[in-house]
Amino acid sequence: MSNLVLTVTQVNTYVKSILEGDPRLQSVYLTGEVSNFVNHYRSGHCYLSLKDDQSAIKAVMFKNVASRLRFVPENGMKVLVRGRISLYERDGQYQFYIDDMQPAGVGAMQVALEQLKKKLHAQGLFEQSRKKALPPMPMRVGVVTSPIGAAVQDIKNILNRRFPLAEVVLCPVLVQGEEAPSQIAAALDLINQKRAADVIIVGRGGGPMEDLWAFNSEEVVQAVARSDIPVISAVGHETDYTLCDLAADLRAPTPSAAAELAVPQASDLLAELHIVRATMIQNMLLMVKQARHRLEQVEKSRIFQHPQDILLEKRMLLDQISNDLVSAYHRKLFEPRKKLAEMAAKLDALSPLKVLARGYTVARTKDKTIRSTEDVALGDTISLQVSDGKIHCTVFEKTSMGSENK
């Protein structure tokens, strides 16, 4: 036997043909734990390893397979996969090519539901603080559901029975199937854009989890959460719960119950109206009685019995005011005159004329008052001021105190 020299590619191609030629390796079921999971965002292919307690095997899941999964594989998740074993020639590594994947022990839909619930909860879409109160008396009720199901008839009947004044605004949509989520979300957005309702009921009748799945879609949950109009979620029966229920402002166990919660009972409103009417009548009668009593008290008062007394009192008050004004006028007029007279008397007492009247005189030369014998000389002409005139004299003699000078 001769020794052949082969290339690496030839070896890998040969080994690959052996693996792919074994029918037992072309449809294999494996169970293991996901590790090293990578979702290649450009190609859409997923790369991972499947391992148990002792071994691991590389695996790949192409885009067309990954797009059909209802859940996102995560590291540590135990899965059941179906596929084939082959060899990747470029790296010379054999690996498992996955054609289908299911969570081990739990349905794929349940895993997908829990994963989406965790994601939306982290975004705060289920917070109680976001919930809006329902309007007490909505005049327009939006209904987003199938137009041919029993749910829409139940809702209409109950709304008409409880509160016939409310208008039903129906937005017909598919409630299951691939197109259902986009139709439901679009209907919710349209009602909000048009402000076509005061409250919205969204839902459908009961069914298996697969039939209710549209109400677990992220598209519908986001539309419910961003609605400015309060939303009542009524999906399935009492035991059915969806993510739409968690995002809605109120969850009703059935579509019929949603209709009950959406509007008040007209008969209850009428009963309350009768109570309010009776209360208003009673209050008005009491007000009339109290007003009549006050009127009787006024009629018995002194002003109505003796109106002339009020006039006399006002006249007395007017006289008193008049007297006060006259007194004030006299005080303002005569007090200044009295003060002026007193000041004049004081000035008159200090007048030099008073001194002259008592026999004194004032001697003056031409330019000054004579205060001393030194102010004049013999032969000077002086004037003497007396009380009734002047006397002109000539100085012929001066006598100082204690001596004589001629």
Task: Write up what this structure looks like.
The chain has 406 residues and is α/β, with parallel strands linked by helices. Helix content is 42%, strand content 21%. The chain contains twelve helices and 13 strands. The longest helix is centred in the last third of the chain and has 43 residues, at 307-349. It is elongated and about 185 Å long. The mean pLDDT is 86.
The coarse overall form would be elongated
What is the string of SSEs from the N terminus onward?
A: HEEEHEEHEHEHEHEHEHHHHHEEE
Q: What is the overall number of helices? A: 12
Spans of at least 5 consecutive residues with low confidence: none
Write the layout of secondary structure elements.
Blueprint: H1 8-21, E1 28-39, E2 46-51, E3 56-61, H2 63-66, E4 78-88, E5 93-103, H3 108-122, E6 140-145, H4 150-162, E7 167-172, H5 180-194, E8 199-204, H6 218-226, E9 231-235, H7 243-247, E10 250-251, H8 255-262, H9 266-299, H10 302-305, H11 307-349, H12 352-357, E11 362-364, E12 381-386, E13 389-394
Parallel strand pairs: 3-5, 6-7, 6-8, 8-9, 9-10
Antiparallel strand pairs: 1-2, 1-4, 2-3, 4-5, 11-12, 12-13
